[in-house]
Specification:
- It is elongated, with a radius of gyration of 15 Å.
- The protein has 2 domains: 44 residues, no CATH class; 33 residues, no CATH class.
- The two termini are 29 Å apart.
- Helices cover 44% and strands 16% of the residues.
- The strands form 2 sheets. A two-stranded antiparallel sheet has the order 1-2. A two-stranded antiparallel sheet has the order 3-4.
- Strand 3 and strand 4 form a beta hairpin.
- The chain is an alpha+beta fold.
Amino acid sequence: MNRKGVLTVIVAVGLAGSAGGCALDVTALCEGAGGTWAGGTCTRWSPAQQAALEGCEANGGVYLRGDDTCHFGEGGP
């Protein structure tokens, strides 16, 4: 996920918490950013990201969704 996408999702989630008395449609905002609105949370996940996660983990890596990166041999003994 690129930085613009992450920022859009963060803004959507932030606005959702303050949209109680607003006419703002947070569902449309989330979906417009390519996400899915469910349970008060905007989630953005694609088949390409799922494939990246599976490929990363199959090779012993740790996939970081926020960065959309795979890391190997970091942070452990």
